[in-house]
C-alpha cells in the first residue's frame, strides 16, 4: 500500500494532528535508487528525488489550499514557495523521507504534479542557484563583513603562521592565509612587466635598474580561504552540522588533511570594498588673511549641509586615509575679497594640501580675473598619494596680497572624493569568492576528492565520507538469494569492456589538454581526468577539474638567466603559484593570467638560511618573513621545465607536488573495482520488499547464491505493489583489502647531506640518522629532480647506473618486453596507483577475442615525454620516468613522429640557464621485423644558441625485436638537461583476414590506452 504523509506548513485546523495522509487513489509510483548518485550532490534522480501526480480530491484540495483555483491567493497553510515535509511509505514502512514541492497544477487533467527531494537532494535543492553572497547574508539582509581584512604586508606575513586571525570578525585563526604568488605583473604605469624573485627584485632585460620601482607588494597577493570553513558555512546555512568523521576528520597529523586545504580566490573575482563617496559643503564663510599662506587650511566642518560621509573619514575638517592609495579630490571654491581699493589688479593665489601637517607643493592659479569681477568659483582636481592613517586637508595660499587684507572662502564651497585607487583597501572576501553557485562548488569538492555525502535528517548531521571510507564503514551482509527472479535473465559482463575504453584528458573548458602540465596528470586527483566508455553500466564517469584551475606552482627562484627561473636548492620546499604567461616566447613580455579558483595544501613555513621574504605597502618596507610559506598542489605534477606543444615558450616554471597521497587516497579502489580483470557487472530482476529498500546503505554487501555483490542501482521499484524491479550489481572484490591503503602524508624526513656517489643522506625530524629514505621524500625534497631506486631504497641527486645487467649499458626499463604493470614492487607510489590487475597481461588467454571482418591498415597517435642529461658531447639515450629507453615496434609498421625538445645548460658559469630548443619530424619503419630509418630524414638540430648540440631518432634490433629510441648529443664543454616531447603516428601496414583470433595489443602511458580488435602498435606497456 502506497502512503504519502505530509506535514502542513501550518496546522489546517487548530488541534488537528500535524501529519496528513494525501489521497493516492490510482497513483502508481515507481522509484529508482542509484549508488553513484551518492557521489553527486546535484543529482536529482533515484531515491534522492521522485516525481509523481496526485488527483484532485477533497483531501488533496484541502491540503494544497485549493491551489487548483486560479484566483486563490497564497495562504499561511500552504505556500508553493515553501518546503513541505513528506514521508513516502510502502505498507507503513518509510522508503523515502524528504521535502515535497508542488511543481504545477493541471486543470484539464485534474492533477497536482509534485516532486519529493530526499536525502542529499534536499541539500542540493536548498543550495541550487545560491551564491556565496546568499550563504553569508545575515538575518537583517546585509552581507557579513566578518571575513574582511586589510591586505597589508603585516597581515600577509602574519597569516603565514596560521596562529593569527587577520579577519575583522575574528572568525578563527588560519581561516585566511596567503600563498606566495608570482603574477609577473607589478608596474601599472608601463606595459612591460617581468617576474619578481624572492628578494623583491625584478629582472628586466631592457631597463637597467627598476629595483626601486618593482618591489614585491602585499597588494599583488591573492588571499586563500580554508575549505573546511566554507563547508561549515554551507552546513550552517542548511541548518545542519558537519560530522568530524571521514573527510572532515582532523584528529590526525595528515599533511593533506582538510584542515590544511585552502582555496585561492579567482583573480577575476578578487574584490576590495569601494570607498563610499563623500561630499562636504562649507556651512560658513572662512576668511583667509593675506601673508599667512602656510596656515590657511580650508576646513570643512562636520556641521555643514550637505555632509555625506558614511564611513566617517572626515573629522573637524580633516580627512584620514582609511588605507594606502591614490585619492582624487575635487575642490570647488567660492571666493570673494575685501580689496576694494586695488580692484584693477589681477590677483594670483594657490591651492595645495597638507599631509600629516607637511605643506605640499602649491598649484598656482591666475584666472586673469581682476578683483572687480569677484566673487568667482574655481574648481580643482588633485590626486594625492596617502598611506593608511595619513591626515589630509586642502589649503589656500595668497601670493601677492598685502598683509592684513583677506580673501574669503564662502559658504557653499565643497570638497568631494571622486576617485580612489586602493593599494591596501579592505578586502571584500565574500565578494571575492565569486558569483558561481555554491552547489557547483560543492559538487566540485566532492568530485575532486571522490567523496560520498550522507545526511542524518533526524539529527541534522552531514557526513562527508571518502568513497573508500564509506564502503569500509561497518558493512553488513544481506542475503537476497530468495529475492532473485530465476525466470528472468541473470546477465554477467565485465564491468568495463576493455576493447572500447579509452582515457582522455580535458581541460576545464572540455578541450583536449596538450600542455604537459595537464598531460602529466597520470593517476591524479585534479586536473582533468576523464574516463569514457561505451558501456552503459559503467556509471559515474566524470571530469575531475572542471571547476578548479590546476595549480601551476614553481620553485622560488633567486636568479634569472634569460628569464628562466633557477632552482634554489637552499629553499627546497618553498613554492609560489605562477600566474603569468610569456606573450612572445622568451622576450620577457609577460601578462597577468586571470586565474580561476585553485586548491592547495598549506605545508607550513620553509625557513631560508640566507634571505628574508620582504613585502611592501605602497612602496614602503612594511614586513619581512624569515623564509617562505609552503603551498603544495592538490596533485602530483612533473617537477621540470615543460614544453608547450602549441607555443614557442620553452621556459615554463617549476611545479610542486604532493607525492602519492591524493589519488591513491581517494580514487584507486574505485578504479580497481571498475577496471580489474575480475570486475564484473550483473543485471537481473528481483522482487524486493519494503524492508529491503528502507534505510538501505549502499556499502552493504549483497549475497546471492554463493557470490557477493555491491548495489549499483534499483530501477522501477513499485511502491505498494508486488512487482519485479531491475537490479544492477557489481562484483564485490574486497574493497580496501585490494590495495595498500597505508596513508601517505608527505615526507617526514630531512636531508642531512650527500655522498660522492650522489646518494642522499637522511635524518628523521629529530635529527636521528636514517638508513633508508623514501620515494615520497625523494620526490618532494628533490623537487622532482632526484631519482628514487626502489630496489635499494636509495635516493640519488643524479641518475646512477647501479648495474642492472642490461646489454650495452642501456637500461631497457621495467615494462619494455611484454610487461603490463607498473614499475614493480609491492608499494603504490606515483607509478603504481593503478592496481596491477587493471590491464590485461599479454600472456592472458582472456586477451583473445574473435575478430570480425576487417581489412586494411590500422593507425593511432600517442604522445609521451622523455628526459635525459648529457655531459659534454657524449651521447645519451632519452628515457621515460620509469627508465624505459627503447620503444617496441611491430614487425611491419611505419611510425612518423614530431619531436620537440628543450634543453637547459646546467654547467656553472656564464652559460648557466641558457636554453636551446627545436622541433622537427622523423620517420622509422619496419619490414619483416627489420627496422630502417629513411635517409631523407635529417638529424634534428636545435635552433637555439648552441648549434653543436643535436637529437637523432635511431633504430635497433634487440632479441629479434625492432625498436627505436631518441639519442641526444650535447656541447663539448657544457652539461645539458633535456626534455623531449614526441608525438608518434604509428601505422600497422599488415592486412587482417577475416575471423581470426589475434592478441589484443595495448599501449598505456597513464594518459591514453589504445585498445583495438586486432594487433595495434605496442610501445612500452608503461611510458610516463
- Mean pLDDT across the residues is 68
The whole-angstrom Rg is 36 Å
Please provide the count of β strands: 65
Largest sheet: 7 strands, mixed
Number of domains: 6
Low-confidence stretches: 41-47, 185-214, 497-545, 555-573, 582-590, 635-665, 736-745, 804-857, 991-1024
Task: Tell me the fraction of residues in β-strands, as a range.
Answer: 25-35%
- Basic shape: flat
- Which structural class is indicated by helix and strand composition? mainly beta
What is the strand and helix layout of this fold?
Blueprint: E1 2-7, E2 20-21, E3 30-34, E4 49-55, H1 58-63, E5 84-90, E6 93-106, E7 111-118, H2 120-127, H3 132-135, H4 153-159, E8 176-177, E9 181-182, E10 224-226, H5 227-238, E11 241-242, E12 261-264, E13 279-281, E14 286-289, E15 307-308, E16 314-315, E17 318-320, E18 325-337, E19 349-355, E20 358-359, E21 363-365, E22 376-386, E23 391-398, E24 406-409, E25 414-422, H6 429-432, H7 438-448, E26 451-456, E27 461-466, H8 467-472, E28 477-479, E29 491-494, E30 502-505, H9 516-519, E31 529-532, E32 543-544, E33 553-555, E34 560-561, E35 564-565, E36 575-578, E37 580-582, E38 590-592, E39 598-607, E40 613-617, E41 620-625, E42 627-633, H10 661-666, H11 668-675, E43 680-686, H12 690-693, E44 701-704, E45 707-718, E46 725-731, E47 749-754, E48 760-764, E49 769-770, H13 775-781, E50 787-789, E51 794-796, E52 849-850, E53 858-871, E54 876-877, E55 887-888, E56 893-905, E57 915-927, E58 930-932, E59 940-941, E60 950-958, E61 961-969, E62 975-988, E63 997-998, E64 1002-1004, E65 1009-1011
Amino acid at each position: 500500500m502506497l502512503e504519502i504523509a505530509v506535514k502542513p506548513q501550518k496546522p489546517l485546523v487548530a488541534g488537528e494532528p500535524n501529519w496528513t495522509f494525501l489521497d493516492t487513489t490510482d497513483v502508481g509510483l515507481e522509484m529508482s535508487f542509484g549508488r553513484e548518485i551518492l557521489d553527486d550532490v546535484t543529482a536529482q534522480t533515484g531515491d534522492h528525488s521522485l516525481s509523481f501526480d496526485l488527483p484532485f480530491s477533497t483531501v488533496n484540495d484541502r491540503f494544497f489550499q485549493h491551489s487548483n483555483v486560479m484566483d486563490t491567493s497564497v495562504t499561511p497553510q500552504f505556500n508553493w514557495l515553501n518546503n513541505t515535509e513528506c514521508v513516502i511509505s510502502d505498507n507503513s514502512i518509510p522508503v523515502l523521507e524528504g521535502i515535497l514541492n508542488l511543481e504545477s497544477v493541471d486543470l484539464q487533467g485534474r492533477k497536482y504534479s509534485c516532486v519529493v527531494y530526499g536525502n542529499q537532494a534536499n541539500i542540493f535543492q536548498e543550495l541550487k542557484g545560491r551564491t556565496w553572497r546568499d550563504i553569508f547574508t545575515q538575518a537583517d539582509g546585509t552581507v557579513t563583513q566578518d571575513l574582511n581584512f586589510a591586505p597589508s604586508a603585516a597581515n600577509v606575513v602574519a597569516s603565514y603562521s596560521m596562529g593569527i586571525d587577520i579577519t575583522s570578525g575574528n572568525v578563527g585563526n588560519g581561516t585566511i592565509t596567503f600563498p606566495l604568488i608570482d603574477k609577473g605583473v607589478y608596474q601599472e604605469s608601463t606595459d612591460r612587466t617581468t617576474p619578481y624573485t624572492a628578494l623583491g627584485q625584478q629582472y628586466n632585460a631592457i631597463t637597467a635598474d627598476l629595483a626601486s620601482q618593482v618591489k614585491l607588494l602585499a597588494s599583488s597577493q591573492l588571499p586563500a580561504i580554508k575549505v573546511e570553513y566554507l563547508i561549515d558555512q554551507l552546513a550552517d546555512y542548511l541548518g545542519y552540522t558537519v560530522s568530524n568523521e571521514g573527510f572532515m576528520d582532523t584528529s590526525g597529523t595528515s599533511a593533506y588533511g582538510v584542515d590544511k586545504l585552502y582555496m585561492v580566490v579567482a583573480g577575476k573575482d578578487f574584490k576590495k570594498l569601494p570607498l563610499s563617496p563623500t561630499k562636504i559643503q562649507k556651512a560658513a564663510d572662512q576668511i583667509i588673511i593675506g601673508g599667512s599662506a602656510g596656515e590657511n587650511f580650508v576646513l570643512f566642518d562636520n556641521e555643514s549641509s550637505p555632509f555625506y560621509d558614511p564611513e566617517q573619514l572626515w573629522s573637524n575638517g580633516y580627512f584620514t586615509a582609511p588605507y594606502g592609495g591614490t585619492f582624487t579630490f575635487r575642490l570647488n571654491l567660492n571666493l570673494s575679497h575685501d580689496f576694494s581699493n586695488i580692484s584693477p589688479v589681477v590677483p594670483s593665489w594657490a591651492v595645495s594640501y597638507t599631509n600629516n601637517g607637511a605643506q605640499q607643493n602649491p598649484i598656482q592659479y591666475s584666472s586673469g580675473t581682476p578683483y572687480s569681477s569677484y566673487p568667482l568659483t574655481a574648481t580643482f582636481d588633485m590626486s594625492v598619494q596617502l598611506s593608511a592613517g595619513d591626515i589630509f586637508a586642502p589649503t589656500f595660499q595668497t601670493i601677492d596680497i598685502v598683509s592684513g587684507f583677506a580673501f574669503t572662502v564662502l559658504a557653499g564651497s565643497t570638497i568631494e572624493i571622486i576617485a580612489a585607487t586602493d593599494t591596501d583597501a579592505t578586502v571584500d572576501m565574500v565578494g571575492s569568492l565569486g558569483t558561481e553557485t555554491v552547489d557547483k562548488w560543492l559538487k566540485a569538492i566532492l568530485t575532486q576528492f571522490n567523496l560520498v555525502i550522507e545526511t542524518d535528517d533526524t539529527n541534522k548531521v552531514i557526513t562527508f565520507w571518502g568513497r573508500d571510507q564509506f564502503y569500509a564503514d561497518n558493512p553488513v551482509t544481506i542475503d537476497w538469494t530468495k529475492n532473485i527472479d530465476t525466470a528472468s535473465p541473470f546477465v554477467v559482463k565485465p564491468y568495463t569492456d576493455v576493447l572500447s575504453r579509452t582515457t582522455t584528458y580535458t581541460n576545464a573548458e572540455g578541450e583536449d589538454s596538450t600542455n604537459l602540465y595537464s598531460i602529466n596528470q597520470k593517476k591524479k586527483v585534479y586536473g582533468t581526468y576523464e574516463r569514457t566508455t561505451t558501456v552503459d553500466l559503467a556509471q559515474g564517469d566524470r571530469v575531475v577539474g572542471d571547476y578548479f584551475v590546476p595549480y601551476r606552482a614553481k620553485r622560488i627562484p633567486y636568479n634569472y638567466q634569460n628569464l628562466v627561473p633557477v632552482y634554489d636548492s637552499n629553499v627546497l620546499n618553498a613554492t609560489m603559484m605562477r600566474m603569468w604567461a610569456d606573450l612572445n616566447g622568451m622576450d620577457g613580455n609577460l601578462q597577468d593570467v586571470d586565474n580561476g579558483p585553485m586548491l592547495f595544501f598549506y605545508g607550513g613555513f620553509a625557513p631560508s638560511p640566507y634571505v628574508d621574504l620582504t613585502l611592501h605597502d605602497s612602496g614602503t618596507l612594511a614586513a619581512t618573513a624569515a623564509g617562505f610559506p609552503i603551498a603544495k598542489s592538490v596533485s602530483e605534477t612533473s617537477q621540470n621545465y615543460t614544453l608547450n606543444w602549441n607555443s614557442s615558450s620553452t621556459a615554463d616554471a617549476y611545479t610542486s607536488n604532493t607525492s602519492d597521497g591524493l589519488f591513491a587516497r581517494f580514487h584507486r579502489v574505485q578504479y580497481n573495482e571498475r577496471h580489474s580483470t575480475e570486475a564484473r557487472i550483473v543485471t537481473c530482476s528481483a522482487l524486493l520488499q519494503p524492508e529491503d529498500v528502507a534505510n538501505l546503505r549502499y556499502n552493504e554487501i549483497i549475497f546471492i547464491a554463493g557470490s557477493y555483490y555491491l548495489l549499483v542501482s534499483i530501477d522501477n521499484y513499485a511502491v505498494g505493489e508486488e512487482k519485479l524491479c531491475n537490479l544492477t550489481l557489481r562484483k564485490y572484490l574486497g574493497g580496501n583489502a585490494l590495495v595498500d591503503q597505508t596513508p601517505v602524508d608527505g615526507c617526514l624526513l630531512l636531508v642531512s647531506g650527500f655522498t660522492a656517489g650522489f646518494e642522499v643522506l637522511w635524518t628523521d625530524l629529530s635529527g636521528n640518522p636514517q638508513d633508508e629514505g623514501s620515494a615520497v621524500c625523494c620526490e618532494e625534497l628533490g623537487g622532482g629532480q632526484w631519482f628514487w631506486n626502489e630496489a635499494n631504497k636509495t635516493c640519488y641527486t643524479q641518475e646512477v647506473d647501479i648495474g642492472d645487467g642490461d646489454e650495452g649499458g642501456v637500461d631497457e626499463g621495467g615494462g619494455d618486453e611484454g610487461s603490463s604493470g607498473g614499475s614493480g614492487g609491492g608499494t603504490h607510489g606515483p607509478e603504481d596507483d593503478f592496481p596491477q590487475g587493471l590491464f590485461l597481461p599479454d600472456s592472458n588467454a582472456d586477451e583473445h577475442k574473435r575478430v570480425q571482418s576487417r581489412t586494411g591498415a590500422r593507425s593511432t597517435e600517442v604522445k609521451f615525454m622523455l628526459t635525459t642529461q648529457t655531459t659534454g658531447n657524449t651521447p645519451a639515450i632519452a628515457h621515460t620516468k620509469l627508465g624505459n629507453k627503447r620503444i617496441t615496434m611491430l614487425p611491419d609498421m611505419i611510425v612518423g613522429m614530431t619531436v620537440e625538445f628543450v634543453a637547459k645548460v646546467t654547467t656553472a658559469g656564464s652559460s648557466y640557464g641558457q636554453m636551446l630548443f627545436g622541433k622537427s619530424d622523423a620517420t622509422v619503419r619496419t619490414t619483416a621485423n627489420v627496422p630502417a630509418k629513411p635517409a631523407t630524414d635529417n638529424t634534428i638540430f636545435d635552433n637555439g644558441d648552441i648549434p653543436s648540440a643535436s637529437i637523432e631518432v635511431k633504430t635497433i634490433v634487440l632479441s629479434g625485436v625492432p625498436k627505436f629510441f631518441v639519442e641526444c648529443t650535447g656541447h663539448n664543454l657544457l652539461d645539458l638537461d633535456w626534455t623531449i616531447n614526441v608525438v608518434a603516428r604509428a601505422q600497422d601496414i599488415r592486412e587482417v583476414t577475416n575471423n581470426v583470433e589475434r592478441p589484443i595489443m595495448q599501449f598505456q602511458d597513464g594518459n591514453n590506452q589504445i585498445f583495438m580488435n586486432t594487433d595495434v602498435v605496442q610501445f612500452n606497456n608503461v611510458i610516463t
